[in-house]
Amino acid sequence: MIIHGEIESAHEDDPPGSIHFVQWDLGFRRQDPALYGRKWKRREDRLFDLLDAGRPLTISADGRNYVLPAVNVPRWRKRFRQIC
Length: 84
Known about the structure:
Elements: E1 6-9, E2 19-22, H1 38-51, E3 57-61, E4 64-68, H2 76-83
Antiparallel strand pairs: 1-2, 3-4
């Protein structure tokens, strides 16, 4: 899955050396009428499936790779949907 975004430096309350991968609205323009529609929801579900696969996630950006550990939080998806 390719998700285009930007790398940002740490925010003031982050640990030293932190960086952020920022990707707004799953690639939809802010003013796109399809934002938060069915196509957006399908893309969100694909991203959640990827996060929920139980495998490490490699993010490649700016010629570097970052490996995130597998998500290991029970019922995270359900809780996320309740909040967001």
